[in-house]
C-alpha cells in the first residue's frame, strides 16, 4: 500500500520503516506521513468464553516479546 502511494519501505536500524521513519503503517498522528499512514485499525473478532479470566489488548510491541 505504501509503495503504491509513492512511498518506500526499507529496513532502517534493524526495523522495517516507511520513509526511514515510522515503523507502523496504521496510527494516529504523524502528520508528515499522513499520505502513507491510515488510522483504521486492523481488527479481529475473538469469542470470549465464560472461563476466560483476562482480556489483554496490546500492540505489536508486547506481542513481539510474548509467546502464545
From TrEMBL:
Signal sequence region: none
PROSITE patterns given in the database record: PPM_2
Any single Pfam family the record assigns to this protein: PP2C
SUPFAM superfamilies per record: PP2C-like
Start and end residues of each PPM-type phosphatase domain: 1-68
One GO molecular-function entry: protein serine/threonine phosphatase activity
InterPro entries the record matches: PP2C, PPM-type-like_dom_sf, PPM-type_phosphatase-like_dom
Name listed for the protein in its UniProt record: PPM-type phosphatase domain-containing protein
